[in-house]
Amino acid sequence: MMRLVYFSVPGRAEASRIALALSGFEWEDVEVNGIEFNKMKDEGDLPWDMLPILQTSKGTIAESSAILRYAGKVAGLVPEDPYQAAKVDEFIDGMGPIARAIDTTFIDDEDKKLKLRKQLFEPDGAATKALKMYDKKIEKSKKGWAADTDEMSIADLKLFTEVFGFFSGNYDGIEKHMISGYKNLLKYHHKVANDKRIKNHYNEINPEDIRWTFLPDAFSDLT
Ligand SMILES: N[C@@H](CCC(=O)N[C@@H](CS)C(=O)NCC(=O)O)C(=O)O
Predict the structure, then answer these.
(1) Nearest residue CA, atom 6 of ligand 1?
(2) For burial by CB atoms within 10 Å, which of 38, 114, 115, 198 has the most?
(3) CA-to-CA distance for 19 and 128, rounded, in angstroms?
(4) Global confidence as pTM
(5) CA–CA separation, 167 and 119 (whole Å)
(6) Which residue, by CA, sits nearest to atom 12 of ligand 1?
(7) CA gyration radius for the chain?
(8) DSSP β-ladder status, 53-56 and 2-6
C-alpha cells in the first residue's frame, strides 16, 4: 500500500493525488500538521527534509515532480512515445519558477507578504510572466493539452492543480480576478475540469472547499 504524505492543502501534492486515484492502485492520502512534519524530519523519514513524500514497498520517493512521474507511470498518464514523454518532463520542469517565486513570499510580516505577492502579478512580475507563457503554450497546443500531447498527461495534472490552486483564497493577496486576462488558460480550465476523470475525482467537493478551484464552474464568471 502506497502512502502519500503532505500537508492538508492541494499544493505540491495534488497532481500526484489525482494520478494515484486514477491508477487503481491502493494508496493512502496522509495529511500531516507542522508537529507531525517536524517529527518525521527529526526521525529521518524525509529524504530532503521536505514534503511531499510517497512511501512505497521499495522505499520513499521525495520531490513532487519525481512522485508525479512515478504516479503518472502507474496511472498511464505518461506518454509512451519518448518525444512526447520528454515534452511532458519539459513542461513539468518549466513550471519550477512560479512555485519558487510564490515560495519566497511565505514570510511572517503580513504587509511585506502582500506587497511581494502583488509584485509577482505586476506586468513584469514572475507570476505574470509564467501565466503568459502557459497561456501561449495552451493556445498553440493542437489538442489543448499542456505539453501538446495526444492525451491528458501528468503535465496537465500539474498545470491544472498548481495554477488554479493559487487562486483558492489560501494565499493571501492572490485573488481570483488576477487570472481573468488569460483567456486560453480559462478555456483550459473548462476543458480539464470537465474531463470525466477529473470531474469524477472532485464530485464530492463543494464550492466552500479549498479545492473549489478545480470544479467545472469555478472560473466561468470570468470567461
Ligand atoms: N522541490 C520540492 C519542494 C518541496 C517543498 O518546498 N515542500 C514544502 C511544502 S510545499 C515543505 O516541506 N516545507 C516545510 C519546510 O521547508 O520546513 C518539491 O517539489 O517537492
Answers:
(1) 50
(2) 198
(3) 28
(4) 0.97
(5) 16
(6) 50
(7) 17
(8) antiparallel
Per-residue model confidence as pLDDT tens digits over 20-45: 999 999 999 999 999 999 999 999 99
Q: Which residue has the cell 475540469?
A: 193
18 and 105 housed in the same domain? no
Is residue 187 scored above 90 in pLDDT? yes
What are 121-139's pLDDT values in tens digits?
999 999 999 999 999 999 9
Nine-digit cell string for 26: 491502493
Residue 184, SS3 per DSSP:
helix
Q: Which residue, of 16, 47, 75, is where some domain finishes?
A: 75
Degrees to nearest 5, angle at CA 21 with 55 and 193: 135
Structural domain boundaries enclosing 32: 2-75
In a shared domain, residues 134 and 217: yes
**Cell 502506497 sits at which residue?**
2
